[in-house]
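Ticket reopened. Same input as before:
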Amino acid sequence: MSQVLQHSLPTGTRATRVIGATAILVMAWVVVSGLLLTPQDVVQGESVRIMYVHVPSAWIAYLAFIFTAVASASWLISKKHSMGFDRFAGASAEVGVMFMAITLVTGSLWGRLTWGEFWQWDPRLTTTAFLFVTYIGYLAVRRLEGSVEQRARRSAVVAMLAVLEIPLVHFSVVIWRSLHQGATVLNPSGDVKMDDLMLFTLFSGVVGFTLVFIWLVLHRQRTMLLVDIANNQGLDSAIVARRAEGSANK
Amino acid sequence: MKNKSGTRVTKGKVVTAVLLKDLRIEMRSRVVTNQVLPFAGLVMVMFAFALDNDDVLQRVAGGLVWLATLFSLFIIVQRSFAIDTADGALDSLRVAGIDLSAVFFGKAIALALKLVALEIVLICGAVLLYRVDLSASGLVLLVTCVLCATSGLAFVGTLYGGLTAGAKGRETLLPLLLLPVVAPVLIAATRATEAAFGSGGAQTSEGWAWIGLLTVFAAVFGVGGSLAFGSLIDE
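Engineering reply: fixed in the latest deploy. New output:
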């Protein structure tokens, strides 16, 4: 174990390097195409370009949270309670929260340009905001003191409770809005007739963001593993040091 | 499961024992009556200062009652679990080999009783301070709403209270975890209470639709809580 840390093992492997390099290429294409090549929208003008970031990051955020829920459920169900599931759940939630923040920021910027307001109390927006806060809470639970097993159990249960909570929040917001306001405002996805290049750029964005997501999660769960090892080692070496003190005093 | 004298300890007995323990602590410490109730009352008065308009207050009275309840919920839950963890009572319960879902229900019922007492005072406060009218049919709706919403809040509060019990920084973590979860209760209970109060011309019949949501919420977290509570407080 000590050798692992002394050699400061990199978290990259050949696979992550390939994924990372591909992600850079795809993202470079998305930037060039999204900002320069694609035409502006008839209705939304230049603001439509936000969509190339907003839609993929929203997709990744939801994917990340589904991933966290599945990994947490796997941890709870599996007899071995493999810590790998827990680290994947945690890494995925961290990356998911980041992409959800990007989604909310780009979404409200787009909303300001298109609707004239940063925020609308639309069920989808409101549920997304709740999802964001819920997973910030999830990350806070992961940081509670305790053993690695405690962290895994607590956070897996919280992730499962989030799966119960989010549909209830969404449903209640839907009927709250439907009773208080007629149909919701402009459909957030926009009634956009997209030309082929725009659609392809959007698709590339989704692919590029997915690669970035995979790359980040793989690296993050490996750093988490190293942190866990370092913590264990810290305890072990502390015990050894105290024992040495004890025998020296005899 | 059997105790020392060989008699069977049923789940019901554990629920009652935990419930009576929590209520006895309250009877002796009087935290809810002497601290939480005045706090909630103060919140109601502060809302009146902030909103500063009789019409507005009357219209939003339902929401204010439930917001004050939520703020008080955090304090009561924290207090209840702080006592349990400080003396290692929760650890003792865990190693006693009793059904931990029974502990969950015992604590949840105790919390629900405290919350109902608080809500009665808050609703009376709303009638007096915010000049809300309450009809007979509205009262039936309001009582149902209080019972359903309180069950949901008690289950969720106990569940997350157990999760954060003994953790550093639980005072700030508990609201962060609880507020998003109880959002459906706030929405549904507020609308049902507004219907009961007839705020903004709302009909009493409109409120009953929300009772369904409150019931589903209480059922989901009652079942989820009884399953998860044991593993959350397990070290």
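Chain A is about 80% helix and 0% strand. Confidence is low (pLDDT under 50) at residues 181-188 of chain A. Please confirm and we'll close it.
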